[in-house]
Write a structure and sequence with these properties.
- In chain A, the strands form 2 sheets. Chain A has an 8-stranded antiparallel beta barrel with strand order 2-3-4-5-7-8-9-10. Chain A has a two-stranded antiparallel ribbon with strand order 1-6.
- Helix content of chain A is about 15%, strand content about 60%.
- Chain A has 2 domains: about 30 residues; about 150 residues, Beta Barrel (Porin), CATH 2.40.160.20.
- In chain A, strand 4 and strand 5 form a beta hairpin.
- By secondary structure, chain A is mainly β.
- Chain A is flat and about 75 Å long.
- Chain B is an alpha+beta fold and about 190 residues long.
- Chain B has a single domain, classed as Porin.
- In chain B, about 15% of the residues lie in helices and about 55% in strands.
- Chain B contains 2 helices and 8 strands, in the order H-E-E-E-H-E-E-E-E-E.
- An 8-stranded antiparallel barrel of chain B has the order 1-2-3-4-5-6-7-8.
- In chain B, strand 5 and strand 6 form a beta hairpin.
- Classes of the chains: A mainly beta (about 190), B alpha+beta (about 190).
- Chains A and B meet through helix 1, strand 3 and strand 10 of A and helix 1, strand 5 and strand 6 of B.
């Protein structure tokens, strides 16, 4: 017990000396606050060539929470996008995987609104039911959103989308159209 | 006992001064990666170890940042094991990923930053969407090991979600995460 207390005191003293030492070492430098400058008028210019973006996001599809990642390639007003998501449901998770085409309504500045259309697979994976299997269906989506850039490499993104898919109803031997609405917010990292 | 309190005060004051002096040197870095370890208190299951990795992107002078993190823990409950002799989920595996936005009003001071966001929890194979509130502090170690790119941090997070166990009525659960980590700025 005595040894344990001494050990704690020794460890604490060592941490204190370490912290004070680092302060002294740093005191020899002249600290400079970074100057937050107003962003230039054309912070982003998609006409400069091909650029890539990575955009993690979260949101809601119906009443279920979503997480996702978008990988994009920009070329002027056109953007090609690969998107994957997880929609967390109570009895199953939905994984929409899609390829989307975006039309950028502006190619310069901080704010870039866009419209989007695409298609892909919707995988429904049951989580806590026994015997059910993964169901995959084809679906299309369309919607719009906007990216707002804080710096040349970082910005925020909001998006609203409508998903449409067709599932077969085995009981009534017919196909049914299903509609899902999604809103999402996230960030985007621009790779020049 | 008095010596111990004096020691604690010395440590806190030392770290506060260190943070004030050396945080400025790290404001110029935009990214950081952290390795964190600590405790995960899962509502109704008890507390177990937790390890994770965090990525941060800082902007507007380091006063704001976004963070993505992934962590792994356990849902082991000695009460359920030894007393109730039951298991709620099919496994004790737990992992959580978080996306949070944080405001650090005093990156050079000793007050903590505040964070909010969302998390995906996987408890024994069942996924849950959660809201996240939390606070924490980055404590840079400028000049330590000859570099300005290292720091330590602590984080406290409350993952708030609707829990439903064995078809019970849903209730609001709070999973608390306490971690301490080593941070690398680049």
């Amino acid at each position: 017990m005595v040894f344990s207390r001494q050990l704690r005191i020794a460890a604490g003293t060592f941490m204190s000396v370490l912290c004070l030492l680092s302060t002294q070492l740093h005191a020899q430098e002249v600290p400079q606050e970074p100057v937050v400058q107003a962003p230039p008028k054309n912070l982003i210019d998609l006409n400069e060539g091909v650029s890539f973006e990575i955009a993690p996001h979260t949101g809601l599809m119906g009443s279920s929470g979503t997480f996702g990642l978008k990988l994009s390639m920009n070329y002027s007003a056109f953007t090609l996008e690969l998107a994957g998501e997880q929609v967390i449901g109570r009895t199953a998770n939905l994984y929409p995987i899609s390829v989307n085409a975006l039309l950028n309504l502006s190619t310069r500045g901080q704010l870039i609104p866009y419209g989007t259309v695409g298609g892909g697979l919707l995988l429904t994976v049951p989580t806590n039911t026994i015997g059910d299997q993964t169901v995959s269906t084809l679906g299309v989506n369309f919607g719009g959103g906007a990216r707002y850039y804080i710096t040349k490499t970082f910005g925020f993104r909001v998006e609203g989308k409508q998903y449409v898919t067709s599932v077969s109803n085995d009981r009534e031997s017919k196909n049914e159209l299903l509609f899902f609405q999604e809103i999402s917010v996230g960030v985007t990292f621009m790779l020049h | 006992m008095t010596h111990r309190y004096l020691l604690y005060i010395t440590i806190v004051v030392s770290m506060a001064f260190t943070a004030q002096e050396s945080a400025r040197a790290q404001l110029r870095y935009e990214n950081s990666l952290s390795l964190s370890a600590g405790a995960y208190a899962a509502s109704g299951f008890g507390t177990n170890h937790f390890v994770g990795v965090r990525y941060n992107y800082f902007f507007l002078g380091g006063r704001y940042f976004v963070e993505g993190s992934l962590g792994f823990g356990s849902l082991r409950s000695r009460v359920l094991e030894n007393v109730a002799k039951s298991q709620v989920f099919s496994s004790e595996r737990l992992y959580a990923y978080e996306f949070v936005f944080a405001y650090d009003a005093f990156p050079s001071g000793f007050l903590p930053f505040f964070a909010f966001g969302v998390a995906g929890l996987n408890q024994g194979g069942e996924s849950t969407f959660a809201g996240v509130l939390g606070l924490g502090k980055r404590i840079p170690l400028a000049g330590f090991l000859g570099t300005n790119q290292l720091g330590v941090r602590y984080d406290i997070r409350d993952q708030i979600f609707s829990q439903r166990i064995n078809d019970s009525d849903p209730y609001i659960a709070h999973n608390l995460v306490f971690t301490f980590g080593l941070q690398f700025y680049f």
